[in-house]
Amino acid sequence: MTNPPGPDVVVVGAGFAGLTVARALTALGHDVVVLEGRDRVGGRSYTTTVAGVPVDLGATFVGPTQTEVLALAAELGCTTVPTHNVGKNLIRWRGRVRSYRSTIPRLSILELLDVSRIQWRFERLAKQVPLGAPWTAPTAHRLDHETVEGWLRSVHAGKSTRDLMAIMTRVTWGCEPNEVSMLHAVHYIKAAGGIGTMLDVKGGAQQDRFPDGTQQIALRMAEALGDRVRLDSVVERIEHDGSGVTVHTATGAVTARAVVVAVPPAHRAAIAFEPGLPTGYAELAKNWPLGNLSKAYAAYETPFWRTAGQSGEALSDDGSVFITFDVSPGDGGPGVLLGFTDARSFDPLEPQERRARALECFAGLFGEAARNPVDYVDHRWSAEAFAPGGPTAAVPPGSWTTYGRRLREPVDGIFWTGTETADEWTGFLDGAVRSGHRAAAEVAGYLATN
Ligand SMILES: Cc1cc2nc3c(=O)[nH]c(=O)nc-3n(C[C@H](O)[C@H](O)[C@H](O)COP(=O)(O)OP(=O)(O)OC[C@H]3O[C@@H](n4cnc5c(N)ncnc54)[C@H](O)[C@@H]3O)c2cc1C
Questions:
Q1: Residue 61 beta carbon below 6 angstroms from any ligand 1 atom
Q2: How remote is the CA of residue 3 from the centroid of ligand 1, in Å?
Q3: Does the Cβ of 392 fall within 6 Å of ligand 1?
C-alpha cells in the first residue's frame, strides 16, 4: 500500500464530527473523501417539518458555552433563536399537575433539600474525575463498577430525587439509571460544565435552538465539500498495514494514507478491520452501547398554552412523554410542542397508538385542546434501519476502566472521532465538532511525518 492513488484521507461517517474533520483537512489542502452509509448527511441531527415548521428529530438545542458548534454555525450563516422560556413550567408528579419556575420543579422542602444534597455530592465527585481520562481518577474503579441507581441508593437519595435522576438519565443517555456507569455519568456531566449547565434553559444547554433545524449546519458543510461526500456508502471493511489504508464499501474501495472513523463507538463493531485491531478495540465497540430516546411533535393552530401563562416546558413522572418544550416559531401560530418520549414503552407501539399516547400526555399537561393537533410527527432512533440509537452512548459499568484508553488512540493510520470521544460537551453537537477538530489536527500531524 505504498504511495496509494486516491485521496489523502477517507472519513467514515458524515455526522457533525466527520464533516468537521473533512472540512478542516480540506482547508489545510488535503484531499479527502467522506463515505456516509445513510442517504443523507447529519447523522443524529435530522430535520423534518410539522405543519410546515422545521423540527429536529435528533439534536435541537445549543447553549452559550457550546462555543465550537456556535462558531461553526455562525460561519455557515445558521442563526439561533432563544428557546421559549416565558411563563410557568408544569410538573405532573404523583398524579397531580403543578406549576413552577426555574429548572428545579416544585416539590416539598424536604424533597428539594434532598435534590440539592445529591447534586452537591455529585459535583464533589466530579472534581476528582479528570476530563478525557476518567479511568485515572483515584475513585475510578469504584465509581465505574457502580450504576447511577446503585450510587443514589448508597447515598440514601429519596424517592423523588431518584425519580428526577431517572428522568435526567433517560433524556441524557437514553437509558435507565441502573444501566449506566456512575463514572460515566460524573465524567459526562463534568464535560458539560455541571448538572445546572446541562439541564438549564437560560445559560444552559437548552438556551437556544436553530429555527431552520440543526441539520442545515451539516447540509451546508456537505455542500461546500461537494462530491467529496459520497452517500449510500456503508463502510464494511478497513485494511491497514502501517503505510496506508483501503476502505471497502459494497460498491468499491478507496485507498488513502489515513482513515478517520467518525461513527459512534458502538457502530465501529460493524466494520471489519484487517488485520484485527490490538486487544481492547473490538471489546470497546461491543461495550459502549448507544441509548435510545424518541421524540414526538404536535402542531396546533396557535401556542394556546402561552395565553394561559404557561411556558410549554413540563416534566412528567407518568406516561410516554416525560419532558416537553415549546418550539413554536412565534405567538401567532402554529404552536409546536416537542415531547421527549421514553423509548422503552413508546418505540414498540404502532404509529396510531404512539400518536394517541403522546397526545394523551400533552392533554394531561396542557388541557384537552392538546388532543387535537393540526399535524403530528414522531421519530424512534431505535428503529433506524442503519446505525440505530441515540442520543449518545449509555456506557455500562466497567467499560471506562477496562477499555476507555482505546476510545481515541490511533492505530496504524486509523483515527477515531465522534462526540463520544470529546473532552468537553461529549454527547452533544458541540462535542462532535470539538472531536472533529482534535482528529483533524492528529491526522494533519500524521500526514506531515508519514
Ligand atoms: C433524540 C436526540 C436528541 C438530541 N438532542 C441534542 C440536543 O438538543 N443538542 C445537542 O447538542 N445534541 C443532541 N443530541 C446528540 C447529537 O445529535 C449528537 O451528539 C451528534 O449529532 C453526534 O454527532 P457525530 O458526528 O459524533 O455522530 P453521528 O451524528 O452519529 O454521525 C455518525 C455518522 O456515521 C454514519 N455511519 C455509521 N456507521 C457507518 C459506516 N459503517 N459506514 C458509513 N457511515 C457510517 C452514520 O450514518 C452517521 O451519519 C441528540 C441526539 C438525539 C438522537
A1: yes
A2: 33
A3: yes
pLDDT tens-digit readout, 361-406: 999 999 999 999 999 999 999 999 999 999 999 999 999 999 999 9
Q: Domain 47-64+80-86+205-212+292-383 falls in which CATH fold?
A: Polyamine Oxidase; Chain A, domain 2 (3.90.660)
User: What are the cell numbers at 234?
Assistant: 456503508
User: Could you tell me if the CB of 394 is within 6 A of ligand 1?
Assistant: no
Confidence band, pLDDT 50/70/90 cuts, at residue 103: low
Count of CB atoms situated within 10 Å of the CB of 154? 10
Q: How far is the C-alpha of 290 from the C-alpha of 11, rounded, in Å?
A: 21
* Strand partners of residue 48: 55
For ligand 1, the distance from its centroid to the CA atom of residue 94, given in whole angstroms, is: 35
Judge contact between 371 and 362, C-beta under 8 A. Answer: yes
Query: What is the pLDDT confidence band of residue 4, given thresholds at 50, 70 and 90?
Result: very low
Q: Where are the domains of the chain?
A: 9-43+214-277+411-449, 47-64+80-86+205-212+292-383, 107-195
Q: Is the CB of 219 under 6 A from ligand 1?
A: no
Does pLDDT of 2 surpass 70?
A: no
Query: All 3 cell numbers of residue 122?
Result: 455529585
Listed residue (367, 123, 122, 411) closest to 261, CA to CA: 411
- Ligand 1 pocket, mutate which of 11, 41, 429 (most atoms under 8 A from CB): 429
Ligand 1: which residue has its CA nearest to atom 48?
43
